[in-house]
Amino acid sequence: ATGLVNWAAGGKNNVNGIAYVKLHLLYHKDAIAWETNFDTDFGMTWIDQDEDALRKSSDNIKLATKFGWEMAKSWYLTALGSFKTQYAPGYDYSQEILSPISKIMTPSYTDISVGIDWKPNSIFTVYVSPIAGRITTATTDELRTKYFGADYVEKHLNPETGLCARNYQAEFGASLKAGVNYAAIENLKIISTVTVFTPYSAKPHVDLDWDFSISYQFLKVLNVSLGTQLKYYDRVLFDKIDPETKAPILNADGTVAQGPRVQFKTILGLGIGYSF
What secondary structure does DSSP assign to 45-108, as a single string? Predict the structure, then answer.
């Protein structure tokens, strides 16, 4: 929270809060290994201003489960399933007229795959799947081009309504997932995962997610943490902006040029945590 009274340098009063839950369940007996992770967070910011004073600052739902059978030492035949979405609508506050750019199930990503998981130790794992499926959903007509791509929307266009006739996109391809779960010293944890998916198609694209978090628990219940999220989905497009003038770059027909961008988010938190 920030409170200002007659502050010459400027600024606005604001309050920010985030609630998060991270669960990691692991079962390993004989040749069977089953691992499940559930990460979720939701944060809001209040800014002392007349318009749009309450804004969403963080919003994630992530569930992943991995079941493996050890066919050789450190090598597992594995099936993996995961789901990602968010709770509430998100907005681009740089626009004069606000409209949602995300909401629950827009987008959502459901992955199912079968592959080989290499676990040389309890810290590091690499999973490779040549048989991977991804279902992306977008329930809002105006956002289907953003999350499905213009080619898919044009292919499934309803001539009567002029809208995409499907609210989902199913793709078949290959995926790779690498993870680190390391307790460096007592009460200090480092967790990082990298996931890459690319479909087998005439116009393949790349979906990249990299999550990193480091946390330290002291006095048994207090927890300080730093988390980062990096995304690169080359099918998710943003308006191109001139770095000098900050004005939109236009195409020859006068429309705003668009292209993919690296998305990055950092969260630094101090709160109450309990590990078991």
Answer: EEESSSSS-EEEEEEEEEEEEEEEEEEETTEEEEEEEEEEE-SS-EE-TTSSS--EEEBTTBTE
Residue 20 CA to its chain's centroid (Å): 14
Nearest to 41 by CA among 24, 59, 65, 64: 59
d(CA 162, CA 224): 50
Please give the span between the terminal C-alpha atoms of the chain, in angstroms, as a whole number: 30
HSE-CB for 126 with a 13 A CA cutoff: 3
Residue with tokens 């309890």: 122
Q: 205 exposed, middle or buried (CB, 10 Å; 0-12, 13-18, 19+)? A: middle
- Burial string for 98-109 (b: 16+ CB within 10 Å, else e) reads eeebbbeebbbb
Is residue 205 within 8 Å of residue 236, measured between CB atoms?
Answer: no
The pLDDT tens digits of the residues spanning 166-223 come to 999 999 999 999 999 888 777 888 999 999 999 998 888 899 999 999 988 877 778 8
